[in-house]
Each structure stands twice: as C-alpha cells, then as structure tokens.
Amino acid sequence: MLAKRIEQNRIDLQEGMAQEVLSRIEGENRRYFIETYGCQMNVRDSETIAGLLQRMGYLPAPSKEEANVILFNTCCVRDHAEKRLLANIGALKEQKEGDGSLIIGICGCMMQQADVAKKVMRRFPFVNFVFGTNALWRLPELMLGALGGERLILTEEEGFAICEGLPARRSNPFSAFVNITFGCDNFCSYCIVPYVRGRERSRALSEVVAEVRSLAEQGITEVTLLGQNVNSYGKGKDVDFADLLRAVNGVDGIRRIRYMSSHPKDLTPRLMAAIAENDKVCHHMHLPVQSGSTAILERMNRRYSRESYLNLVQDLRRTVPDIELTTDVIVGFPGETEADFQDTLSLMDQVGFAAAFTFKYSPRKGTRAAEAADQVPEALKKERLKRLNDLQAVKTTENNKKYLGHRGEVLVEGFDRRSETILFGKLDTFKMVYFPGDEGLLGTYQTVSVTECARNSLLGRME
Ligand code: 5AD
Ligand code: SF4
Predict the structure, then answer these.
(1) pLDDT above 80: residue 122
(2) Is the pTM of this model over 0.85?
(3) CATH of domain 2-160
C-alpha cells in the first residue's frame, strides 16, 4: 500500500513537470520525432514516450527535419548498432546548429549501459539528455531540464519498479502491444538484455486485464502480450501465464491474443492446454531454439537440450495440431563446430518452422560468451548463416504450400508497399496473406482463400 502511494507521488511529481513543460513551449515549437531501433519492447516503449510527449503538448512531426524534439530509442542486442547510432547522432549536428532550441534525447537499451551513455554525452555536446529503459517515466523531468539548458543522464534507475498508468500513443488502431513482464533473469550467455533491462518483473494480472479492457473499448481487437519470456509470467506471484491467457480471453471485444517470446524451458503442459482451450489465443508460437546442438545450448545457458526441444514441439503439436512455430537461431556461437552446426540444420529440417530469424553471433561486452577464447571466425559465421538461410527458405516455401486452398480469417492490417489495391492481413497462425481489396476493409476481419503460394508469402482472395 505504502509502495503504491510512493509510486503515485513519483508519477504526480512528473505530471506536474509535464504541465510545466506544456506551459513553457510556444505554439509552433512542439513537434516530436522518435526513431525506434530493435524489438517490439522498444516499439512499445516509444509509444509511451510519444504518449508522454503528447501530454506535454507535443505533436508528431512528419520528418526529423521538421521536429523540435528528436529522440533515438536504441537497441544493443546485436550487430554494430553502436557505430551506426553514433553516426546518426553526428548527422544531427547541422540541424542543431540551425536551430539552437532543438531538443535531442537518446534512450533505450544502449543508453542503459552507463559507459555508452557517458560516451554519447561527451562526444556530442549538442545532445540534451540520455536515459535508460527504466527511466521512461521521468521524461517530463528531462524535458523540463532541457528547456532550462541542463544536460542530464538518467541511466541507473534503482529498483526497476514497474510504472503503471503512463500514457501511450499507440501506433496501430486495431492491434496493440501490451507489456506483461519487464526484464529477464535467464542470463543466456550471449545476451545483453538482462543487463540493460534489469530483473524480471511481472505486471499484476488485474493491471494487464484492465489495460486490455480499455484497449478493447477503444476498438482494438488484437493484443500481443509482450515479455522477454512470457512463459515465466507471474514468477513469485500466485498466477502464471496460463491464468493470464484465460483472463485476457474473457475480455469482450478482443478477438485475438498473441504473445512473444516464449522460452522453451518454461513451456509447460498446463500452458499448452491453455492455448488449446482458449479460443482467442492464436495458434502461433515464437519459440526461439538458438541452436540444435545440446553442447552449444549448454554453453548458451539455455537449460534445455536438443531432445527436450524436439519433445516439446511434438507435445505442442499434439495439443494444438495446427500451431505454427517460428524461431530465432544464432550461428557461430563460440566453440560451434561443423558438427554442432549440422545439428542446427537437422533440427530446422525436422521441425519445419514457418519462419526463422537467423543471426550471426555477435559478442556483447559484459556477457559470458564474449569472454570465450574459441570465437568463430567471421567468414565461417557468414558461410553458416547463408547455409542456414538457404535451408530455411526451402522449409518456408514447403510450409507455405500447405496453405494452398486454405480458407481462413485475416485481420486486415494495411496495403502492400508496392500497391494501392492489394491489402495484407494475418491468419490466426501469423501467416501473412495478400489479396485485392480497398481501404474500407482496414481493421476488419475477412475470410480469404489462399490461391497461390509465392516464395515468401501467400496470395489469396476474399470470399
Ligand atoms: N548475437 C547474436 N544474436 C543474438 N541474439 C541475442 N543476443 C545475440 C547476440 N549476442 C538473438 C537471439 C534472440 C534474439 C532476440 O536475438 O536469437 O532470441
Ligand atoms: Fe536474452 Fe535469454 Fe533473456 Fe531472451 S531469455 S532476453 S535471449 S537472456
């Protein structure tokens, strides 16, 4: 109770500062632009940032050049994100020189790393503030500081408490991301996430259901429950993810429930049953396997083996026969031999994923795997990635073929990038179907039949 009151006071204080910003900014100088990198968590965080800025009187800018506030929401999970980010920040120098009042802020996972945050502030004197993933709610304070000419760094927010009740500007009018857990406790040996998003915390079931209900009242029909590992939702509480699915399934107006990501080690028979029994829960699971070699999985600290993953898939398909699986795979993890890689290929062949996100291992400073002596040469990683992608392309096409003649319902989400008459929507199984139609259908559910299987996509027509 006391904790709740303290939290409320902290939020009220920020709200007061948001009002102060609102009273200070002039009519025209209030356009914001947010550039988001990385995963769905970051997309969802950017929606909160946009909601907070709108509460301070800001409106979206059509482009970076027309903005008075520019924010980069960063990611540091893979690749050479840091180099790219530094170049992108550098490119803003000219704009700032032309408009001294331009506010530039950098946030997200990369900024939760104190050394990188400091480097950004040091190298770019025109950046107004940086803040980490756990300080989103303090944006009014940062904005007020920036208007007053201060330069601030907020990275190490103690305690990592969940902040409820923040506003959000949702980017999609029919489908919404809903956070259910924050952070991660798994410490897979290659992964930076536990360090930049903190310990795993679950939102209260009542809070999640209340948010979903309010989204349904606003006309949203599809929700995607988000967490680094949704399957461990409720750890330390007396509810679990199966309970949450049941509760969300009961919300009127919601027609589809998606969720991601699932960790194989926490996929229980009870959860499989909940997926099968609750009619709104979609028949798709993103179940990252990372590697098909038990030895590599052990070094990755994944806490399952090749065999137990394959058994899970078998059980899942027995419980939910038409479920589609997608996955993440890393090639070239330290110590990965040709035989280990062959194990990955054979697992991919055996399971037949509908799609796979494939990555070359990239060392992250501060993680255990980055210290390993037996790093795999870049050229070999590249070669393995290609072989893996070639195999998956065949498997994707093979899997698509089963949809030929299939009839199913899609939620119409938008237009094909190259056409104003071709719409796309997803089947319950997350498969995308393209079909002719017009604008009036956006946001509706339509029954389509699949008439053609292109290499990566399904083409169809409305019934
Ligand atoms: N190198 C390569 N891929 C990584 N991932 C996470 N960390 C790394 C890394 N250091 C991949 C994993 C994870 C996905 C979100 O990103 O496959 O599931
Ligand atoms: Fe990273 Fe593993 Fe946590 Fe996923 S489960 S966020 S890969 S540590």
Answers:
(1) yes
(2) yes
(3) 3.40.50.12160
